[in-house]
């Protein structure tokens, strides 16, 4: 294997650490000596829960961000072409290797966070996130062409919590959605889906934010009284915006991880058209995900498929 090909494979092994809906890992990569192509893997899109592959594209955007970061840290300048071929809409991006690059200490710190970052579905501490940390999270999203709207006041957190609760209720009544989710949770010894060990703790009924029911067998515990919430948005709502939101998502998550913050994404309001519209109207832009952010005891990383399973021949 040439140096560049092994570098590309190492970058792909970092890219697959990106978050994806229910750890479906809906991506495929084609590695070439001078470029990497990122494809949407249609066979891994949750067709009931995510009929337009919106959330899958957000996950692929997160993988794209991680791939760029890993290549940068291994000394490669990259040039990214998003959706480069209109006749092949599932070719999401082409990343050209474009000469040498000297990574910054901040990029190195973020690339180390790739391996520690995980979704934390446990209760957070009742400890406020300081302003400089919030500013850094918002900046991370802006650099990637998205916005992170942060909320920590009871009325605005309550309004978003209400939309999460409404959406969660609608989804819980949809048997096709419930069946589809069950196929991806409670897994043991698998390299995809959400394992029981990562399913967090059920919350007591007085908890403000309704987390997804992921089959945790643990007893319910009280959660933090008032979490910091973030709504990730873009101005438009095209496929390219979904990829920008995903790149911003991973930039925010890595920045949070490097700053010692825990995050759990909440996508119930995105999966119900009426609540997504209401959430988007509330923040004045197309909403892609809600993030619950705070300080917490770290949880566990979830497995990924090996690179050999996600690289096309
Ligand atoms: C678009 C998107 C939506 C997600 N929605 C939720 C959610 O509603 N609830 C949740 O607990 N996790 C959610 N997640 C987190 C994934 O379940 C998680 O990334 C995946 O299981 C891999 O685990 P990791 O983030 O710990 O690596 C979402 C992730 C993405 C990218």
Automatic annotation (TrEMBL):
<dbReference type="GO" id="GO:0016491">
    <property type="term" value="F:oxidoreductase activity"/>
</dbReference>
<dbReference type="InterPro" id="IPR000415">
    <property type="entry name" value="Nitroreductase-like"/>
</dbReference>
<protein>
    <recommendedName>
        <fullName>Nitroreductase family protein</fullName>
    </recommendedName>
</protein>
<dbReference type="InterPro" id="IPR050627">
    <property type="entry name" value="Nitroreductase/BluB"/>
</dbReference>
